Amino acid sequence: MGARVVMKKNMGWLSVMLWLLPVASLWAGSIEVVDPWVREAPPAMQTLSAYMEIRNTGTMGKTVVGASSPMFAKVEFHESMQRAGVSTMVARDSLVIDAGSKVTLKPGGYHLMLIAPQGPRPLRAGDKVPLALHLSDGSQWVGEAEVRAVKGDTAADMHHHHAH
What is 28-162's CATH topology? Predict the structure, then answer.
């Protein structure tokens, strides 16, 4: 009878550990993502932008080497910049976040470019977009970004932002 009790206790702990395993895979070590959001775009747009603050609360640098979403064919890192008065976007392979620092993805700077929406309808304000950030150490952050309407955005404004 004693062996049965021990086995049941061990099975209980095993069940808890197996239940926590998926949760652990969502944790990217010392990376925290704050306020992730996606800019609402006109229905015909084939690219949207996602923004957030990525904090490294650890003691070692982290490198975000990729991103993905089941709602888009492709997700890339881009940086918007001004060169000789002309807005340009440059694709980036990764984002390096030094220990104890942060990188802010925001309009006019670094952002995630969400390419070729895969959903049955255009995204609207209030919708949630699942996102994953993949780190060079094999860990990942998984979460959701809320779609937000931005005052002043019009179809012409969006074309201007993405045409360069």
Answer: Immunoglobulin-like (2.60.40)
